[in-house]
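Lab notebook: predicted structure, single chain.

Context: the supervisor wants predicted structures on file for every construct in the current expression panel, including those that have not yet been purified. This is the next one on the list. No modifications to the sequence; it matches the entry in the shared construct table.
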Amino acid sequence: MAQQYSLTSRIKAGYRAFDSAQMYRNEKEVGSTILNFLSNNSQLRREDFHFTSKLASNSSYDAARTSIRRSVQQCGLGYIDLFLLHSPYGGKAARLASWKAVEDAIADGEVKTGGVSNYGVKQ
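Prediction complete. Output recorded below exactly as produced.
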């Protein structure tokens, strides 16, 4: 509840971009706070907010695709603006499979943009 109050205060102060991640376990709370604010404020729309989330771990295509869908459902916002591969762990094959899952989520309208986080030059 305290985090929700804090997020609402930040929205009222003008914040429009929010960072989330499966590993942070905050997708549902951040998404519901945005939706609650929107339900009481007709001057803003979902499109006025930028919601980022991240894949917890690279593994197989199916696992990543399922995980992305779960994130979209958890946040409740209809789509995720930016979805990142949170780390390069898992090896090259897992990274490529996970990236393909992000590309397909973009094609299906679940994610607007994909990217990577915590990667080095070698990856």
